[in-house]
Amino acid sequence: MRADAVRNIDAVLQTGARLLAEDPGTTIATIAAEAGVDRRTVYRRFARREALRDAVLHTKLDAVDAVLSDARLESAPATVALYRFLEGIIAVVRRYPIDTDQMHCDDESYARMLDQRERIATFIRRAQDEGLIRSDLPDGIAAALLHQIVTLLASQYRDRDPAEAAEIAVDTLLRGVGRN
């Protein structure tokens, strides 16, 4: 694919992710206009809005897989892995703000999403075993807090560099918001 075609598809996917997150009924014409491409360009690649939505989901899942691998959740020191994960995942959520829970998933995509969540949960258990994260919390609380912190920093603090946002996320997750 030519470089300009790749840029156009990327613009369509990112714009589609943002607009579909805001309004699942957004038209392809609206997405094309916002992405700065002709709607025929979008229709050549995606016959229907659902095909575009599915492509956004697959692209986001691919990006999350890359972050999980790059963070080395299984092998890097827990603190290093946490920073790497947060910096990468904040960038991905900003690029593709649509929540995978609000999208239609085929069986393969759903299995990938569950696998990603399990990899994160396994990392959190490792971080708890190593004493980085409290182990006396009810099951799922640390993962839920991590998810909410990422969502907040990705959506409401877009002016912050992902590395800076990751520092805030780690500090908030590990130290909370109380006075020390």
Model regions low in confidence, pLDDT < 50 over at least 5 residues: none
Through-space gap between termini:
54 Å
Instruction: Give the count of helical stretches.
Output: 8
Mean pLDDT: 91
Radius of gyration: 18 Å
Report the principal-axis shape. Answer: elongated
Largest sheet: none
Instruction: Name the CATH architecture of the largest domain.
Output: Orthogonal Bundle
**Count of all domains:** 2
Structural class: mainly alpha
Classified by CATH, the class of the largest domain is: Mainly Alpha
Strand content: under 5%
Q: N-to-C SSE series?
A: HHHHHHHH
Fraction in helix: over 70%
Q: What does the model show?
A:
This protein has 180 residues and is mainly α. The chain has two domains: 1-47, Arc Repressor Mutant, subunit A; 54-175, Tetracycline Repressor, domain 2. 72% of the residues lie in helices and 0% in strands. It contains eight helices and no strands. It has helices at residues 3-22, 28-35, 39-45, 49-71, 78-95, 107-129, 141-156, 162-175. The chain is elongated, with a radius of gyration of 18 Å. It starts with a helix and ends in a 5-residue tail after the last helix. The model has no long low-confidence stretch (mean pLDDT 91).
